[in-house]
Amino acid sequence: MFSICQRLVVSLSGLVLCAFAFAGETPAPRNAEVYIGWPNNGEVIEAGKPFRVWFGLRNMGVAPKDVKFPNTGHHHLLIDTPLPSMDEPIPSDRNHLHFGTGETETMIELPPGKHTLQLLMGDDKHIPHNPPVYSRKITITVK
């Protein structure tokens, strides 16, 4: 069975089309890494009060929205949602928080229960880079 990427290569005869078909146009370093520094995966958070989430980034810089500078972008925190389309602007709603002034941490409050958190870098227009730079998804519990 062929993957969708392999089918594109076979049917379109071009690896470049496959590699870039589902990502934005702004290049990112291949070794760029974004991660959630805190909370840790599996962390139990006290309900009823805000908690800090801090963002880590390696091999890439942070720049605010509307500032186009090579190898930079800004953070988007995804809460209880899968990764969005990689070739369109990242949505802005309660599940997709934008940090367009270059913030590297935030305070959030979540209702009791299990929640997922994930970071996704966006370019100056909130579109994921090519290749996309996103963290692993972590799960926390608010009690």
TrEMBL record:
Annotated signal sequence range: 1-23
Keyword annotations of the record: Signal
InterPro entries from the entry?
Answer: DUF4399 (IPR025512)
Q: Name one Pfam family in it.
A: DUF4399
Question: Boundaries of each DUF4399 domain copy?
Answer: 53-143
- What is the name of this protein? Uncharacterized protein DUF4399
